[in-house]
Amino acid sequence: MSEKLQKVLARSGLGSRRHMEQAIIDGRVSVNGVVASLGDRVAVGDELRLDGRLVHFSVESELRRRVIAYYKPEGEICSRSDPEGRPTVFDNLPRIKDERWVMVGRLDINSTGLLLFTNDGEFANRLMHPSSGIEREYAVRVMGTLTPEVQRTLCDGVELDDGPARFESVSELGGEGFNRWWQVVVKEGRNREVRRLFESQNLKVSRLLRTRYGTQKLPRELRTGRWVELDKPDIDALLGAVELRPRRGGTGLFGIAKRRVDKLRDNPLPPRPVDAGRQRRSREAAAEGRPARIQRHDGNARPAQQGGGAGADQQRKGGFLRQQRRDGRNKDPQSGE
């Protein structure tokens, strides 16, 4: 079975279908060594390259569409890697063979809450595109007084540096004194949009937590730094919101994976702390102008640490295992390790 070239590239997470069409027009894509043209198709066994780099792909009918919900903690950045060696949201995600997780939207380093990841690039792009009108809901702690007049102004719309923006709704959640919690909804994912809307009214956001993306709420059993894979009903609800059909390859959880998620609901894992030592090392490395030592959760480090001998290696290993026990990783039903 063959598929349109731009569809395969978009699903691989390399960009939207429109951007991939432009890449084909620009002559950046080749199939089996021949520069591709718009309208070409690709099948299993073909060699597909973008800008000379090999693209690993599978046809749609063979793939099971997967989505995971991740509770992002404060201090992680929304990037696959960071030159400063800071922790990223991808550090704790499970590995998937011959595929990769595509992030749906972003949260800044000081924000927390729901992040969705999928192995379907087209699905991710539709969820993020403003034309889909997907709602993002946030719980926000605001320093200052949010009067009814200010609420109306924020819902009517204000002019930001990158154009007009507005809240779909604003409602009070509670709190006392100078810091109160509010629930706000937007339909775009522009950089720091929620914070900038409040700043336009001389109000400062001290905490920001995403509680919902489209039809998917932040699971109650999820703790910071942890993830859970969504089942078919939740995925189908998101698909319906962006008018995508379910795949023949299947959607959702089966067998052992489904039992693991059911067990997680009954026995939530404890929060996974952000690696404060790694943050400190990255700042020190940046100050000294050297590459940061990146600590992985499998205990490997890059670049390799010099010296120390076998005794030091044993000491590091023991410390790592103790940390695994403290954060519950050694009994993580989803880690696959």
What can you see in these coordinates?
- It is a single chain.
- By secondary structure, this protein is an alpha+beta fold.
- It folds into 3 domains: 2-59, RNA-binding S4 domain (Structural Genomics Hypothetical 15.5 Kd Protein In mrcA-pckA Intergenic Region, Chain A); 63-134 and 214-337, 2-Layer Sandwich (Alpha-Beta Plaits); 135-213, Pseudouridine synthase (2-Layer Sandwich), CATH 3.30.2350.
- It is built from 9 helices and 19 strands.
- It has helices at residues 5-11, 17-25, 121-128, 148-156, 193-199, 232-241, 255-266, 276-288, 309-327, and strands at 2-4, 29-31, 34-35, 41-43, 48-50, 53-54, 67-72, 102-104, 112-118, 136-143, 158-160, 163-165, 169-176, 179-186, 204-213, 216-217, 227-229, 294-295, 301-302.
- Strands 7, 8, 9, 10, 13, 14, 15, 16 and 17 form a 9-stranded mixed sheet that branches.
- β2 and β3 (34-35) form a beta hairpin.
- α1 (5-11) packs across α2 (17-25) and α1 packs across α3 (121-128).
- It is globular and about 65 Å long.
- It starts with a strand and ends in a 10-residue tail after the last helix.
- One of its GO terms (molecular function) is RNA binding.
- Residues 264-337 are annotated as: Disordered.
- Its EC number is 5.4.99.-.
- Keywords: Isomerase, RNA-binding, rRNA processing.
Can you tell me the CATH topology of the largest domain? Alpha-Beta Plaits
In CATH's first tier, which class of the largest domain applies? Alpha Beta
Contiguous helical run count = 9
Radius of gyration: 22 Å
Q: What's the shape?
A: globular
Number of strands: 19
> Mean of the pLDDT scores?
81
- The helix fraction, in percent, is 25-40%
- Largest beta-sheet characterization: 9 strands, mixed
Model regions low in confidence, pLDDT < 50 over at least 5 residues: 293-337
Q: What is the CATH architecture descriptor of the largest domain?
A: 2-Layer Sandwich
Alpha carbon gap, first and last residue = 34 Å
Structural class by helix and strand composition: alpha+beta
**What percentage of the residues does DSSP assign to strands (E)?**
15-25%
Looking at CATH, the homologous superfamily of the largest domain is Pseudouridine synthase I, catalytic domain, N-terminal subdomain
What is the count of distinct domains?
3
